[in-house]
Task: structure prediction
Amino acid sequence: MAQVQEIWNKLNPRERLTATGALIVVLGWIVGVVARGLGTGTLALGLIGGIAVLVVLYLKYANPTIQWPVAVPLITLGIAAIVAIFAVLTLIDWLGYLNALGITGLVALGLYVVGALLMAWGAWKEYQVEKPALPNMSASSASTAPPAAAPPAASAPPAEAPTAPPADTPPSEPPPSSSSSSGDTT
Result:
């Protein structure tokens, strides 16, 4: 338990917000299971997503030598966004049946939706601060692509004013005009 507390202390405020949202989603699943087995379906997806976010945040600080395929804020944002979308869709789906849920079902649904939105908001705030580069999914085409052309110059340097030839040099003569002879004789 001391290691979990140590990891919690290492989290920045945005990651704590994300982790708190994930814990609320997990709590919503537990309440849903207690409330007549409502822990199946999208609440179980919320449980998996919440645990995944907690594991990613834990591994980020417990083992900092992990080579992540993409930046950690991007991973947590992706998971949190999927969970939040399904939470909102579940809420919309259950709006017509709210009276059939009972108080514990309403609490479970409320915890799921609020936790998912809180988790997504914290992940979004962390993503905005970190701004990690998006992964290049077309690595094979990057090597065959031609190099980008240099951008055109913004402005040309000012041209020098033409100078008059020195007075002692004769002016240049225009080239002689070429007359074409077509073979006519007049």
